[in-house]
Amino acid sequence: MNDLPDPLLARPAPERVNYATGVLLDAQDFRDEQTYHRGRLARALSALHGHGTVAGLRVLPPATDDAELELHVAPGLALDRHGRLMELQAPWCIRLARWFAAAATADLVAALHRAPRVAPPAAVVVDVFLSAADCARAKTPAFASGPFAALDAVVPARLAETPVLELVPRAEGGPDPIPSPRNFWPAADASDEDKLIAVLGSFETAGQDGALDPLTEHVVGREASAVLLARVAIPVTLAEDAPSGTRPALDMTQRVSVDNALRPFVFLPGKWLGRAPDAAPLVQP
Fold it and tell me: How far is residue 189's CA from residue 198's CA, in Å, rounded to a whole number?
C-alpha cells in the first residue's frame, strides 16, 4: 500500500508551495508542503545536533531466568543521520533466543568472538541499530492511480513514522577490536582554530537517491542512516576445533552482556531536566 520512498532521503531543494486564489492543488502539492517543513526541521536538527541518542533508549539485558532471552529497549528519542526524529513511545523487546534459532549457521559462526575480545569464553556479537521507516496505517478511499479503473481503490490514511530495531551481526575477525562510533567534533575547550575547521568541514551531503557513506560502526549493505544503540554479546558454546559448519549453541549458564557506552549521543550542556536521571551501569551485567 505504501511504495513512496521518504522524499527527505533525496535532500530536496527548500521550495515552498506558492498558494494563490484559483490555483488547483493535487496530492503532490500537499506532499511537497509536508516535505518542505519536514526537510527544514531535519536539516536544522542534523546541522545543530548531529545524530545519536537524545534521551532514553537504554538497552537492558535479559533476566537471569528468561528462557526467551528478551532484550529490552526503553522508550526514548534519537536522531538519525538525515535529521529525522525516531521515537519509541513504549518499551520494545527483542527475543534473542528466537532470533538465534532463525539465524543462519554461517552468520552465527562469522559473528562468533572469543575471549579476550568478549567477556565469556565465546559469544556471538551483535549490534542493536535503530532506523527510521514509514508504516502505512488504516485505509481510505481514493481514485485509482496507474493503469487501473477500480471504483473501490484505497490508499493508506496515515503514514506512521515508526522506528525499526535491527540486530546486526559483527563478523569482523582478527586481532583488531570491533569498529565502534568515533566522534571527531572538537571538545568545548578546543582552540578557536580547531572549532572553525570543524564547522567549515562538517557539511555532509548525500549521494544519489540520498545514499550516505557508512560510518565506522556501520556494516556494508546495512542502513547507513541507522543509529547504534548497544553492542550485545550472546554467550555460546562451540569448540575451537569443531568441524566447519557446526552450529553454535546458546550457553544459558551465562548472562547476555549489553554495552550502552559505545553509542553516539546528543548532549546539551545546561539542559533543564527537572528530575534526577535514572542511573544504571552502562555495561550490564
Answer: 14
Which residues partner with 175 through β-bridges?
none
Q: Is the pTM of this model over 0.85?
A: yes
Task: Inform me whether the pLDDT recorded for 280 exceeds 80.
Answer: yes
User: Is it the case that residue 185 has pLDDT exceeding 60?
Assistant: yes
Nearest to 6 by CA among 43, 34, 45: 34
150-157: which pairs have CB atoms within 8 A and are 24 or more residues apart? 154/1, 155/1, 156/1, 156/2
Rg (CA), the chain: 23
Nearest to 134 by CA among 27, 223, 5: 5
Per-residue pLDDT tens over the stretch 77-90:
999 999 999 999 99
State the residue for C-alpha cell 484559483.
22
Answer yes or no: is pLDDT of 140 > 70. yes
**Does the pLDDT of residue 3 top 60, yes or no?**
no
Name, in order, each residue with C-beta under 8 angstroms of 165's C-beta and a sequence gap of 6 or more: 73, 92, 94, 128, 129, 130, 229
Angle at 52 between CA 135 and CA 164, to 5 degrees: 25
The alpha carbon of residue 257 and the mean position of all alpha carbons in its chain are separated, in whole angstroms, by: 20
What are the extents of the domains in the chain? 7-133+162-284
**Looking at this protein, which amino acid is placed at residue 35?**
T
Question: Reduced to 3 states, what is the DSSP secondary structure of residue 49?
Answer: helix
